[in-house]
């Protein structure tokens, strides 16, 4: 990690938007959505005020981990085109400010979630922040091409936290929601790595495209997509699944496998010729894939509340 204080001294004072950007609002939105899904599909009803405050503190915890990530990764963020404009590498926010904000919000979110719900949910949130900020950001990201595979656990925990808010514990269903995101993360980010070209190699990040080559990355995307499909479909057989979810999952997995096959068949000359159109399309599809799976779970839960849509 390099010192960006000198850069900061040459730039104007940070705006409110810069501090919001530190919290990675796009990532935070995924955390909020999947945590809400875990809470909604849980078999225990939660008072609306408890649900609202719990999701709020989960969001703050997710944002806190984003701030810690930006503090530590300022050096490589300054090299990568995709991240050069972030508040710390651009010098709009001092590294110490990012660190202080991340630590303060982390402690606040965990304590308040404990008070608002239970210690299991708070413990899972604390572990999520620690895993993302320390295990993934400080260790895995720069040391192994399995960074995205193992590090994906941090992004996969929010539905378990939401479930724990409602039930006070962990179950097969919440573990399967975790597994769905965990297995989805590698093909999602490897597709991004394919069309980001030299960003990761320039930053010295051992992404699979850098360490094993782009052909191997295409193979890995297909393999993980094929492993993901039965897991996603298997959720239909649990207490949170049903015919509505199964139908949605079938359509989504057919499209996802088709996209992975198209990526697998491609070579670099074809990809460069059309500006990585297939890879970019698969990356966008991956966002819809995850979002619509959790929408289907919530729709199935809503129907079940009225005695409809079950097996």
From TrEMBL:
Q: Which reaction does it catalyse?
A: heme b + (2E,6E)-farnesyl diphosphate + H2O = Fe(II)-heme o + diphosphate
* EC number(s) recorded for this UniProt protein: 2.5.1.141
What InterPro entries would the database entry show?
A: Protohaem_IX_farnesylTrfase, UbiA_prenyltransferase, UbiA_prenylTrfase_CS, UbiA_sf
* GO biological process assignments: heme O biosynthetic process
Q: What class of enzyme is it?
A: transferase
Q: Which GO terms describe its molecular function?
A: protoheme IX farnesyltransferase activity
Which subcellular locations apply to this protein?
Cell membrane
Give the membrane topology.
Answer: Multi-pass membrane protein
This protein's record includes keyword Cell membrane: yes
Miscellaneous remark of the record: Carbon 2 of the heme B porphyrin ring is defined according to the Fischer nomenclature.
Q: According to its UniProt record, which protein family does this protein belong to?
A: Belongs to the UbiA prenyltransferase family. Protoheme IX farnesyltransferase subfamily.
Q: What does this protein do?
A: Converts heme B (protoheme IX) to heme O by substitution of the vinyl group on carbon 2 of heme B porphyrin ring with a hydroxyethyl farnesyl side group.
Subunit structure, per the record?
A: Interacts with CtaA.
Supply the name of the protein: Protoheme IX farnesyltransferase
User: Per the UniProt entry, what species is this protein from, by scientific name?
Assistant: Actibacterium naphthalenivorans
């Amino acid at each position: 990690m390099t010192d960006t204080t000198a850069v900061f001294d040459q730039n104007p004072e940070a705006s409110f938007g810069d501090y919001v950007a530190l919290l990675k609002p796009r990532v935070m939105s995924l955390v909020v959505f999947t945590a809400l899904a875990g809470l909604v599909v849980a078999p225990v009803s939660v008072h609306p005020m408890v649900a609202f405050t719990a999701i709020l503190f989960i969001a703050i915890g997710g944002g806190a981990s984003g701030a810690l990530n930006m503090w530590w990764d300022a050096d490589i963020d300054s090299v990568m085109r995709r991240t050069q404009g972030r508040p710390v590498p651009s010098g709009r926010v001092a590294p110490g400010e990012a660190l202080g904000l991340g630590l303060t919000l982390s402690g606040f979110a965990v304590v308040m979630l404990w008070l608002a719900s239970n210690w299991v949910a708070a413990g899972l949130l604390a572990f999520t922040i620690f895993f993302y900020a320390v295990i993934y950001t400080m260790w895995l990201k720069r040391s192994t091409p399995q960074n995205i595979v193992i590090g994906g656990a941090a992004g996969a925990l929010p539905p378990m936290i939401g479930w724990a808010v409602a039930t006070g514990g962990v179950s097969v269903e919440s573990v399967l929601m975790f597994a769905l995101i965990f297995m989805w993360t590698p093909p999602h980010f490897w597709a991004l790595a394919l069309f980001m070209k030299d960003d990761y190699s320039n930053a010295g990040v051992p992404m699979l495209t850098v360490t094993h080559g782009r052909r191997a990355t295409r193979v890995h995307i297909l393999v993980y997509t094929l492993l993901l499909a039965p897991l996603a479909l298997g959720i239909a057989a649990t207490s949170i699944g049903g015919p509505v979810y199964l139908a949605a999952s079938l359509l989504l997995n057919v499209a996802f496998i088709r996209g992975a096959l198209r990526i697998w068949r491609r070579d670099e000359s074809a990809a460069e010729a059309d500006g990585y159109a297939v890879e970019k399309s698969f990356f966008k599809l991956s966002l819809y894939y995850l979002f619509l799976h959790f929408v289907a779970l919530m729709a199935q839960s809503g129907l079940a509340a009225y005695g409809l849509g079950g097996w």
